[in-house]
Amino acid sequence: GQNIDQPTEMTATEGAIVQINCTYQTSGFNGLFWYQQHAGEAPTFLSYNVLDGLEEKGRFSSFLSRSKGYSYLLLKELQMKDSASYLCALYNFNKFYFGSGTKLNVKP
Amino acid sequence: GAGVSQSPSNKVTEKGKDVELRCDPISGHTALYWYRQSLGQGLEFLIYFQGNSAPDKSGLPSDRFSAERTGGSVSTLTIQRTQQEDSAVYLCASSLTRTDYGYTFGSGTRLTVV
């Protein structure tokens, strides 16, 4: 398996910055993806990394280090609507391997 | 359609009964995927279609599970003789081609086996 690990739950304050980490153990993959999933809704694509480094998309950034087996999703200027689960996923051979997700609670 | 549509959104069935879950992908998307999300678990790959054929069905948990796709469009996931451990949210996704990372997920069918 891919052994993808994420923290189960995190809490942060509105307006703050939060970093959600993802570690994995696999020999190779095409890309590492981050999805957002609000309760009862479909996962929606946030960001992905193919190469090592930082990808920035507005308030969301994602980082990948293949040599360290590590990625993180950085959320800036947190808003209440950012309360959701964040899914880390490896893409390889036409399918995704998902972590269990990190539930983020944003407090006023 | 504008998005991936799944029906029913909720299904409660008695143990031992058969169920059919339907997925209507985005028009023109040739690749279609089924995933399962059990409580507290990550999304688990079930099967992938390219057109009407299924090159990878390695994630189907048992021979009680089957899926088909017709006309390169609608797909049906069938679970025979349902068991309580089949209770989960079944998510469908589609993408333009098999190499397109841009999945669009449906909202899923929540299956409860009682």
SS-derived structural category of chain B? mainly beta
Instruction: Quickly count the helices of chain A.
Output: 0
Strand content of chain B: over 45%
Helix content of chain A: under 10%
Brief account:
The complex is a heterodimer of chains A (108) and B (114). With 108 residues, chain A is mostly beta strands.
Structure write-up:
The complex is a heterodimer of chains A (108) and B (114). Helices cover 0% and strands 56% of the residues of chain A. Chain A has no helices and ten strands. In chain A, 31% of the residues are buried. By secondary structure, chain B is mainly β. In chain B, a hairpin with a 5-residue loop joins strand 7 (65-69) and strand 8.
Write the layout of secondary structure elements.
The complex is a heterodimer of chains A (108) and B (114).
Chain A lengths: L8 E5 L4 E6 L7 E7 L6 E6 L3 E5 L2 E6 L4 E6 L8 E9 L2 E4 L3 E6 L1
Parallel strand pairs in A: 1-10
Antiparallel strand pairs in A: 2-7, 3-4, 3-8, 5-6, 6-7, 8-9, 8-10
Chain B lengths: L4 E3 L2 E4 L5 E6 L6 E7 L5 E8 L2 E4 L8 E5 L5 E5 L8 E8 L8 E2 L3 E5 L1
Parallel strand pairs in B: 2-11
Antiparallel strand pairs in B: 1-3, 3-8, 4-5, 4-9, 5-6, 7-8, 9-10, 9-11
